[in-house]
Amino acid sequence: MVLSKEEELLESLRNVIDPEIGMNIVELGLIRNLDVAEDKDFARVTMILTTPFCPYGPQLIEQVRVVGSSVMADGVEVEIGAELWDPSMMEEGAGGDWGLF
Hints:
By secondary structure, the chain is of the alpha+beta class.
């Protein structure tokens, strides 16, 4: 099965782990949008943080850039969304480790 660039990018972002929670940012629902350019190998990623002043925010953003650039030859731009995170944004079943669902 051949993955689209968007699917490949999303799968690669599973390697970015939130160090405080120990789960990847895709599982946590922090990736809110992927906009993959059709005319070049570039993507714009909109993500949120688990808390507005997350101490690991800059580190997570840089990791998304680095990991994303391994898939997108022309790079990845990261935008921080204004949406507030809550546990209901987690992938189905991901909250089981926390006893949430």
